[in-house]
């Protein structure tokens, strides 16, 4: 008998979120649960009208998620393995990846270039960091003033992967870091991450991570409550770039 537990309902809702219609998701989940089955059984299990199930099966067949088996004089309808669904999503993501730079360029063309925005909470902060890696272009400067040890403690696993992803970009990374055991360890491996690091004077005390990009400034508060301020004001960005260069040149 078809399982109408919350987990099954949740599966159906998630399938809707990734592009299937309500009826498609219900029929597909029912077909997975039933195995080779008939129109009548699918209608009963999915709570979709029998007359509607016919068109839904055709739609699922076009998506590659349903097939037909002939058993004697009977037609049996079979859901394809969910691996195929994942393949379809991977293909869609690959298509999106090919046009993403053009979409991002359109966004920045119309984006307010004099904005100040604040984002609260670690999940939203991670989204901002992810966006940095897609926005920056090859050979552009990525400048940092930070307390590296506290930055890592915010979410060590995520930020370790972040610097590994960042290292794969052909960008100019220069970092001014507060002195700490973590900083000195990181400096020993700076070439592995395509970074150039200078250590700030020992009496420097920071509680933020400052990132300066060509057209954007990011100020990440490293103490609770976590937040990020993103500034896209050309004069403010230029000021911070100049201050960074002054500090950089002062440290041997």
TrEMBL record:
<protein>
    <recommendedName>
        <fullName>Transcription regulator TrmB N-terminal domain-containing protein</fullName>
    </recommendedName>
</protein>
<dbReference type="Pfam" id="PF01978">
    <property type="entry name" value="TrmB"/>
</dbReference>
<dbReference type="InterPro" id="IPR002831">
    <property type="entry name" value="Tscrpt_reg_TrmB_N"/>
</dbReference>
<feature type="domain" description="Transcription regulator TrmB N-terminal">
    <location>
        <begin position="15"/>
        <end position="79"/>
    </location>
</feature>
<dbReference type="InterPro" id="IPR036388">
    <property type="entry name" value="WH-like_DNA-bd_sf"/>
</dbReference>
<dbReference type="InterPro" id="IPR051797">
    <property type="entry name" value="TrmB-like"/>
</dbReference>
<dbReference type="InterPro" id="IPR036390">
    <property type="entry name" value="WH_DNA-bd_sf"/>
</dbReference>
């Amino acid at each position: 008998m078809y399982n109408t537990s919350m987990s099954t309902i949740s599966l159906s809702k998630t399938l809707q979120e990734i592009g299937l219609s309500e009826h498609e998701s219900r029929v597909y989940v029912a077909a997975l649960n039933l195995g080779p089955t008939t129109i009548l059984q699918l209608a009963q299990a999915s709570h979709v009208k029998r007359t509607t199930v016919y068109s839904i099966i055709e739609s699922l067949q076009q998506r590659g998620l349903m097939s037909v088996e002939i058993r004697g004089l009977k037609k049996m309808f079979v859901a394809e393995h969910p691996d195929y669904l994942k393949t379809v999503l991977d293909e869609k993501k690959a298509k999106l990846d090919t046009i993403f730079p053009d979409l991002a360029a359109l966004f920045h063309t119309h984006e307010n270039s004099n904005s100040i925005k604040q984002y609260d909470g670690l999940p939203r902060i991670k989204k901002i960091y992810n966006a940095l890696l897609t926005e920056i272009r090859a050979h552009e400067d990525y400048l940092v003033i930070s307390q590296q040890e506290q930055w890592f403690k915010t979410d060590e696993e995520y930020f370790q992967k972040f610097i590994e992803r960042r290292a794969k970009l052909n960008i100019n990374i220069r970092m001014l870091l507060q002195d700490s055991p973590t900083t000195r360890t990181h400096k020993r491996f700076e070439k592995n991450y395509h970074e150039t690091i200078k250590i700030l004077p020992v009496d420097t005390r920071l509680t933020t991570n400052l990132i300066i990009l060509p057209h954007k400034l990011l100020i990440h508060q490293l103490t609770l409550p976590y937040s990020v301020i993103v500034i896209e004001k050309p004069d403010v960005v230029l000021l911070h770039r100049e201050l960074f260069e002054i500090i950089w040149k002062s440290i041997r």
